[in-house]
Amino acid sequence: MRSVKPADEIDPDHAQWSAIVAAVEHAQERLLSAVERMEIPAQWYAVLHALLHAADYRLLMSQLARQTSFTSGGFTKLADRMARAGLIDRRSSGGDRRVVYATLTRAGYLAAGAAERAYIAALRSDVLNVLSAEQLETLATLLRPLDEHSFAPEIEPEAAIELPEDDDEDDHFDVPRISRRLNLGQTDSA
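RESULT FIELD:
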């Protein structure tokens, strides 16, 4: 059985990053719960928000899928549900039927506006009572380069972390197989 690493052995960069991610995730959960109390699912809010701020309240379905971190198939199912609820309308481009746009309907526009007001009210009560507006602006400024940075799709083998040998017979991880999947340049010793 593996023992848990003592806190002083945890990489400090990883610990700090984990704290940032956890804080943002917890805050976002609280903000989205205000939207969900309006019976608008969090996933729908992401779409409504994007369309509310798009030119003519419409975007390509493929663009919406990317912005909301969905696969095209998963997003199509979500868009189908939103269309059945009367919040969006999906239409093909006049010249190319493969190009499909999602557009807010009147009901979608009203729902998006109400959800956005609930989200902003929660932001002000749950975040801006802890951080000042200036601190929030500083945090956004500090994190913006991460959003703009294009990460490499693969880790270079030279940058791979050497995994320690583990004599634990109860280990359930196949380290060589996992390493190959992550393209860490390690070979299977079996």
